[in-house]
Amino acid sequence: MTDTRDLRFIVIGAGMAGILSAIKLLEAGRNNLRVYEKAAKVGGTWRENTYPGLTCDVAAHAYTYSFEPNPEWSQYLAPGPEIQQYFERTAKKYGLDDYIRYDREITRCEFKEGQWKLETANGDHDYADVIIAATGVLHRPRFPSLKGLDTFRGALFHSARWDHEVALDDKRIGVIGSGSTGVQIISALSERAQKLTHFQRSAQWIMPVENPAFTEEQKAAFRNDPELLRHMQNEPTYSAAVDRFNHAIANPDSPEMHEIEAWVLQNLEDSVADPVLKEKLRPGYRAACKRLIYSPDYYQAIQRPNVFLETENIECIEENGIRTADGVLHALDVIVLATGFHAHAFMRPMQIVGRNNRSLDDTWAEGPRAYLSISMPDFPNFFMLNGPNGPVGNFSLIEIAEHQWHYIEQLIELIEGGECSHINTSQKAQDTFETARVAAAKQTIFGSGCQSWYLDDKGIPATWPWDRARFFEEMEEPDLQAYDMTC
Fold this sequence. Notes:
By secondary structure, the chain is an alpha/beta fold.
């Protein structure tokens, strides 16, 4: 590549996608780079979440950068701390600390006089020719609107703000929320708490999964055999399973979806003995309508004698515990809010103003949207990784981000080569894409009738509605007819 313009790049966020972006920019000789990170270290969601039992539900070897395999994973599904260590180690290996500014939250980006002007909460100012927004999806905790939340005398915190100073052993603990996080916390604390109560608003389908440990012999083989390690990153059985799952999501009446439904139903029937408990755990919606939960041991944990499932609505929180709608006070020492994130925030509350004084808030007044989850009309040279309407939850976010980077880099090359000074998707292309995406999304399993964080304010799934083969095809090469370019 021969550069004709020395572009200034700003990457927002030093999580998985931000680390990837910085590595790829430096690899291509693009050293006029700054990464702004709002926290004190890299890691994104794996830095934010440190709760007991935290585990990735993507096979560990598949959840690595293609260029940076890891032979040291301890288990088939990696624990959160190991994933955080992997990102810290990778950032250090590729020399990113020289380019990252920590504790610098971007508060405003404005397109002025052909460049992006940025401000941080600390009062710093910077500029960029190209912005890569790698701000992540699940990073702003959602707190429930519960009466009395601030009256509890014990310890109360969100799962993404875990207080490790709080003792858990032999305590009375309540966990609010039954998504993946709540399930993992219940499994982890079921043998530690004196009494553990899981407050469930809606039941979840649980996909059984084994999580065996890798032996020292296996890890030695991974270290000494690069081909074996690459094979583990792209293990055919796992890849085939992901393809089947994605086909099932896009085609709710397919044999693949019926197979998934049979698996999770059999898991419930075989795993839970008490018929009353079994019915409390039986969802009233189709499998995978909400994000499917993978757990090797939740059903076992919820049946321990010290663990209780509470399905009554929460009336309020009081100084000594949680009172449910039936009038019962559940006395507690610790309350954990496993209540998820503002999944549709993306860059917000950052103020972003594009061409013609067009604000992101106005652009997203009817919900976040972007062409192929990467670009938006009137936001020149502003590219997103894992932006709105992407394949979140369908397969590895690292895999998604790497394919998106391949696409974005081709747009960057147009700017560097002088074919254009600014590029962004056209309004026509955005509208055409969104019309097709919405029509397809309504037909996916996500649109089959349950409430989930996949849905937008209109109840329409906000995710990529097609299979990953189509996603990979779209990411191969930009269709320049979908873009406005200025010189």
